Amino acid sequence: MKPANPGLSASGTTIFEAMSSLAREHAAVNLGQGFPDDPGPLALRQAAADFVVHGHNQYPPMLGLPALREAVADHQRRLYGLDVGAAEVLVTSGATEALLDCFMGLLDQGDEVILLEPTYDTYAPVIRRLGAVPRAVRLTPPSWELPVDALAAAFSPRTKLLVLNTPMNPSGKVFTAAELGAIAELVLRHDVYAVCDEVYEHLTFGAARHLPLMTLPGMRERVVRIGSAGKTFSLTGWKIGYITAAPALLRPIAKAHQFVTFTSAPSLQHAVALGLGNDASYFRGLGEPLARSRERLAAGLGALGLPLLTCDGTYFLVADAAGWMRPDEDDVAFCRRLVLEAGVVTIPMSAFYLDAPPRTLIRFCFCKHDATLDAALERLTRRFPR
Ligand code: PMP
Ligand code: GLN
Predict the structure, then answer these.
(1) How many C-beta neighbours within 10 Å does residue 70 have?
(2) Which ligand does the CA of 231 lie closest to?
(3) Which residue's CA lies nearest to atom 8 of ligand 2?
(4) What separation in Å is there between the alpha carbon of 96 and the centre of ligand 2?
(5) What is the dihedral of CA 29, 36, 268, 19, to 10 degrees?
(6) By C-alpha distance, which of 148, 150, 162 is closest to 192?
(7) Domain 6-40+287-383 - what CATH class?
(8) What's the rounded Cα separation, in Å, for the pair 194 and 188?
(9) Which atom of ligand 1 is nearest to the CA of 241?
């Protein structure tokens, strides 16, 4: 038999799937894969169900239901003052598809793509599969500041685009206005595009505020903005995402979309359109309960003596587990042992690095009920008493 594609065959199963399988197998508390305990707003689930029973369940338009495209545009106008129209919005099957569409639509063989490490796990394999070349610029723990000089040095005449994920998974970093200004300046200077993965746009804590790169001068025509209903409405299984970009950028991206999924379930698109119609105060309030969950987990892990890294947004808190690890162990082996010996699932941070990863950092997901967080902390306390 002839071999399948060697690049993809060489990839393992994603760390999220691997660790969630392990959680099921060992009845462990799953603080690995990022999904909330919260079932999501009842009104949206009811609207989707009603649509399935009473609506038109055939192919929706390829670019998305007009009501959802309008709702996405309107939401950005209201929250960020972005002057976008529904014609500049494309609905996708989650941000995962949106990213693939952007990479397929914009990249050519040999193009270079700048990624900021730690980097979400789907970017690099897809970029490589398309014949493009990822170039990583590393943010340094524990504060995850952007090394602007290293970023500037990563650009070459072959650079086509930069991928910016803010708020950032897995670090929990929210890029500051000054950092975004530096990125915008480099994007302009080198005449490149930016694909902005903003799926955690509403999940920020305290004084941290999400600012879309697209709102900065000169960025409107160069930035592709990606959002996801999964994160905004705690409905990760729905896989409804949306892309906003100027027509010249959206056109090639839509060409990819038409061959990848063509469209997504109309019932879910209809319900997400209703959800995006909520007042700005609804979205501004989403961070607060999550911040409380982060505090609960942080207090518990802190009491166990685990050093914690800065986290201003997302679902995720990173800890340095060196004190719990064996000398010969890496983060992957440790996370597996944590499942077997403590019954708690986390994610090894090395999954988010292209090479030479840090070996003692692990990611905890805190978008969980208090009882889930407490159960995990109790198990960890039993295994690693102080
Ligand atoms: N980007 C980032 C940074 C993510 O964390 C995730 C996963 N939640 C996605 C994209 C994929 O989002 P979706 O579930 O909408 O495909
Ligand atoms: N984004 C989720 C996380 O970081 C995982 C999504 C997935 O499993 N594909 O945990």
Answers:
(1) 18
(2) 1
(3) 16
(4) 10
(5) -40
(6) 162
(7) alpha beta
(8) 10
(9) 15
Closest C-alpha among 190, 183, 142 to residue 163: 183
Q: Which amino acid does the sequence have at 132?
A: A
The ligand that comes nearest to the alpha carbon of residue 240 is 1
Whether pTM exceeds 0.85 = yes
Please name the residue whose Cα sits nearest to atom 9 of ligand 2: 16
- Cα 91 to ligand 2 centroid, rounded to whole Å: 19
- For residue 169, the ligand closest to its alpha carbon is 1
Q: Coil, strand, or helix at residue 165? A: strand
Percent of the chain with pLDDT over 70: 100
Q: Which tokens in the block code for residue 236?
A: 């990760």
Environment class of residue 261 by beta-carbon count within 10 Å: exposed (0-12), middle (13-18) or buried (19+)? middle
Beta-carbon contacts of 355 under 8 Å, excluding residues fewer than 6 positions away, are none
Ligand 1 close to Cβ of residue 165 (< 6 A): yes
Long-range contacts of 328-331 (CB under 8 A, 24+ apart): 330/359, 331/357, 331/358, 331/359, 331/360, 331/361, 331/362
- The token duo for 241 is 């995402």
- Mutate which of 11, 15, 16, 19 for ligand 2 pocket (most atoms within 8 A of beta carbon): 16
Closest CA to 264 of 233, 236, 247, 242: 242
pLDDT tier at 219, thresholds 50, 70, 90: very high
What are the extents of the domains in the chain? Answer: 6-40+287-383, 42-283
The per-residue pLDDT for range 180-200, each reduced to its tens digit, is 999 999 999 999 999 999 999
Give the pLDDT confidence of 253-308 residue by residue, as tens digits: 999 999 999 999 999 999 999 999 999 999 999 999 999 999 999 999 999 999 99
At the topology level, CATH places domain 42-283 in: Aspartate Aminotransferase; domain 2 (3.40.640)
